[in-house]
């Protein structure tokens, strides 16, 4: 199934049209999945409601451009892009025509913002009774705090996810990026596909309200139940494991890598066979013969000294080669990879062609993170980078929405698109 | 709430779940109305052997870890080590649309089953495999765990503390399974769509790699390297970045933390102005009224790090003067995307989530009262996603499935049980 990018296979969502009013990360993550799987995702922007992530992580900061963000490119690949000025009647008409042609309308503005732009759920239904409407907002469209706003880290903080990361005697480490922008995007794509499934079976379109914070709260089920049932509040544990209570289960320092950077390896032992194999590899009599480590319960009880001994060993070793040695004897182990490690020396990702490349009309040929599944009888695509601002306006308006070239030229002249 | 007539978005979909890596996928499908039968080994799924337990006493039916990931499913037992199980599995798959295979590569060889054979037996089946590294490649048989996945995939090298004598951090909560499970739902629903929109089209095999799913979930780290050959540095309670940034997270007067998105600097000047008015109430604005700061913050495209850090740290000193809840509420009233760093249980009493009817009241086996489960991550207007049934007891539906539906007699069922098949 390694040839899933070959174009002789079908794209699962070919024929689905998406009117995409998403911006920043969470919404574009949702439509990225739909676009990768073949939906015709048409991103609608205008200088007054542009995706501000177009300015993020500019590749050439001295010459910033709407089209100069690699970050934006990665999250908006495979989509088409048009401009439409909602303050101009013709621009508004363009969006309304696009909604009429769409299976899915999706946005991730603050709750109520899309309504204020003139596109309430009632209005969308008037335009197209079969359109599914997915709205991603911070707190959702109902409830006391619905006017509050989030970015990924805000949502992680309020949901409880931030608090579950780090050492017990230190402040929460949180997540080092907007994890819940990814998660909210994944659930946005899932909701769109579930709603399509429902429409296929019943003919019924509907509106789906997604709160980014709730997409984090669903990930805190175990501590929530433990609190209610056992009156116990979650305590951070670093990289150890409380459930299951196994040891060793930690990250250990290794030799600096060949660029002089700190290097760490994760090692997990869940079974006696793995423990014996680890002891044989390390060859330190303090491990195998010491009653403090004779079984998992003993190791867990003496985890501090166990981790110290393991660290004495790992710090003398290079992380990647140690990982291979541990895996070869059946011990779960993985080095803490940076992006360059993943893209240059991760044999598995390279074998499975996880970073395919595609052209972008401003940034040139670049690699992209792949879609993490392969199909035996379908494919996902990596055909082009993100649309330049308005890159596909002419094509979409003439070929999809039925405008003549003259009408489009007139709209451009009037700044309607 | 148990089975009811309310129609979920996946009503009518029939799913068989095998192994341990498909738990989240199965839950998402089951809560949305699919009929998900989880096949468990006779001793129970791995997560039944992981705590916490009700009253901290081990019982395969009292694991809160299992409960959190298995709502709305049915449970049957079936030994996957015994060739005699083949007949039962073959019968089971005749009546399903999807097989979620979260077992290790080769597990089903013991009963002569695999995806290719299942597709021969029932060509319209979607067989969705979720494995640690995928079904192909040099690492396909490697050993894994959540910690190993978050290390190899990249999240850990972006997460941790400013002090790099401390290791990268894994955020607790089995997130690698959640990430892969979410992607698996997108893949299998897409494959179902393709099958159902093309008359007579067969099903297929989907190969989901946890490693790839996690590797695709690191936000800015990828673009920093691909476009600028920059590596991000992990930093306490904030985004990893190529350069050291000032803190985003501060303890407030009561010791609770508030997350100030982006170091507290508003994206719009007009909000910066109202933030300064708020700080002035406590004479805490320092020198931030100096117009040169506004000029740098809102007109200088080079994002002067030194100036931004000074502004951010001044805002951070300010919020330490106030209780965290007050900071959170006032900041949000000013349209600042700041968040209180909450414990998960603190959301149980928040009126906002109650008004949204987020929580699902349900049972946990072994516990006398009802509990509140986290609800769905989406609210469907017409086809609600909800708790169909409490997490199943081990093998709770053996009789229903094997006897009532597949037609085995009670005597046959007892014989299966006596010989260790179910």
Mean pLDDT of chain B: 96
Biggest sheet record of chain A? 6 strands, parallel
CATH class of the largest domain in chain A: Alpha Beta
Order of secondary-structure elements of chain A:
EHEHEHEHHEHHEHHEEHHHHHEHHEEEHH
Helix percent band of chain B = 25-40%
The main sheet of chain B orders its strands as 3-2-1-4-5-6
Low-confidence stretches of chain A: none
- Which structural class is indicated by helix and strand composition of chain B? alpha/beta
| Fourth-level CATH superfamily of the largest domain in chain A | Crotonobetainyl-coa:carnitine coa-transferase, domain 1
- Under CATH, the homologous superfamily of the largest domain in chain B reads Crotonobetainyl-coa:carnitine coa-transferase, domain 1
* Distance from first to last alpha carbon of chain A: 42 Å
CATH topology description of the largest domain in chain A? Rossmann fold
Q: Give Rg of chain B in angstroms.
A: 26 Å
Number of domains of chain A: 2
**What's the architecture of the largest domain in chain A, going by CATH?**
3-Layer(aba) Sandwich
Oligomer category: heterodimer
Largest sheet of chain B: 6 strands, parallel
Structure description:
Chain A is of the alpha/beta class and 417 residues long. Chain A folds into two domains: 17-219 and 350-413, Crotonobetainyl-coa:carnitine coa-transferase, domain 1 (Rossmann fold, 3-Layer(aba) Sandwich), CATH 3.40.50.10540; 249-345, formyl-coa transferase, domain 3 (2-Layer Sandwich). Chain A is built from 18 helices and twelve strands. The longest helix of chain A is centred in the middle third of the chain and has 24 residues, at 179-202. Chain A starts with 16 loop residues before the first strand and ends with a helix. Chain B is α/β, with parallel strands linked by helices and 422 residues long. Chain B has two domains: 14-216 and 351-418, Rossmann fold, CATH 3.40.50.10540; 238-251 and 257-340, no CATH class. Chain B is 34% helix and 13% strand. Chain B contains 15 helices and 14 strands. Chain B has helices at 23-31, 64-69, 85-93, 115-121, 146-153, 175-197, 210-215, 220-228, 269-280, 291-299, 305-319, 324-333, 351-355, 398-405, 410-418; strands at residues 14-19, 35-40, 74-77, 98-102, 126-131, 204-209, 233-235, 238-241, 249-251, 257-259, 339-340, 360-362, 371-373, 379-380. In chain B, the strands form four sheets. A six-stranded parallel β-sheet of chain B has the order 3-2-1-4-5-6, with helices on both faces. In chain B, strands 9-10-11 form a three-stranded antiparallel β-sheet, with helices on one face. The model of chain B has no long low-confidence stretch (mean pLDDT 96). Strand 6 (207-211) of chain A pairs antiparallel with strand 14 of chain B.
